[in-house]
Amino acid sequence: MAGSNGLRSALRAYVQAARLRTLPLAGATACMGGALGAQALGGAGQLDGRFWWTFGGAWATVWTLQILSNFANDLGDAENGADRGDGGAHGVRADRAVASGRISAADMKRAVVVTALVACGFGVFTVGAVTWGTPRVMFALGWIAAGLVSIAAAYRYTAGRSPYGYKGWGDVAVMVFFGWIGVTGTAVLTSGGQFAWTWLMPATFVGAMGMAVLNLNNMRDASRDAATGKRTLALRLGVRGARVYHAALFVAGWALLVPFLLVVSPVPWRGWYWIVLMALVHAAHLRGVLAAGPPEELDDELKKVALSTALVALAMLFSVIRA
């Protein structure tokens, strides 16, 4: 019985370290890319098994990459100081698995390796679903290489020596990997190799929402990060600057998505009820963030942004795959 309780406790610790509430936003990357790929193929009547296997593989890949990033973040922040506390007002973070001692650093390193291998496997499967039976070797190798770079970036965010997240580059990485590469890459793969520069408009929307979630996280943790040497962009900007930056992300994201849907895209999009509703949710969110109040109270807003962004991407996907 004791062994069973220990196993359950360990599983709960790993699930908490995986931060499942971040997965909807990662799923938005795959859904947005799948919507663009499906549109490029001609919509519901043109989507064959290859599309669905590729889309499923892409979705599994981005989710696994998000979990990998979360595991590496839990490990890296414990090893590099952000979760260990400063011996003063900021103590050890009880909600982090490694810092609190619920998972050892060695065990988390093994979890990171296993998750990276799983992400690599899903990535290879996704590329294989596109290229199987075709002579497109260089196409396949190029996307496998991009996947390996994404795995390295997910790990190096806060783990390893000199992590770039401690220098304020995490926001850029989110835009590049979960926005531009994630969305357009999924679109290219699900469409069988097609590409349009205009896809960067909805890709930037998803990336901007991911940056907004990261900014909320960093605004909430700014005082702790300042005490432990983690120089995030939110910390560098200050409370007022981080709020203005947050608003700019939403303005830029929606300013690109709406023209894409109404003007740039060659096929009319449906699902506007959900898109408008989520835009209103984002407007209400911004009003709360810009209002006076301690950043530490913004934690609940992370889930709102992640879920609402995922619903926008799902609305776009369903508007294409439904006959």
Describe this structure in words.
Helix content is 74%, strand content 0%. The protein is mainly α. It has one domain (21-321). Helix 3 runs antiparallel to helix 4 (105-131) and helix 7 runs antiparallel to helix 9 (233-264). It is globular.
Task: Label this structure with key terms.
323 residues, mainly alpha
Shape type: globular
Distance between the termini: 53 Å
Mean pLDDT: 89
Strand fraction equals: under 5%
Number of helices: 11
Query: How many individual domains?
Result: 1
List unreliable stretches of 5+ residues: none
Helix content: over 70%
Strand and helix layout:
Elements: H1 2-18, H2 23-41, H3 49-80, H4 105-131, H5 137-156, H6 170-190, H7 200-220, H8 222-228, H9 233-264, H10 272-290, H11 299-321
Helix pairs in contact: 2-3, 2-6, 2-7, 2-11, 3-4, 3-5, 3-6, 4-5, 5-6, 6-7, 7-9, 7-11, 9-10, 10-11
Summarize the entry for a quick read:
The protein has helices at 2-18, 23-41, 49-80, 105-131, 137-156, 170-190, 200-220, 222-228, 233-264, 272-290, 299-321.
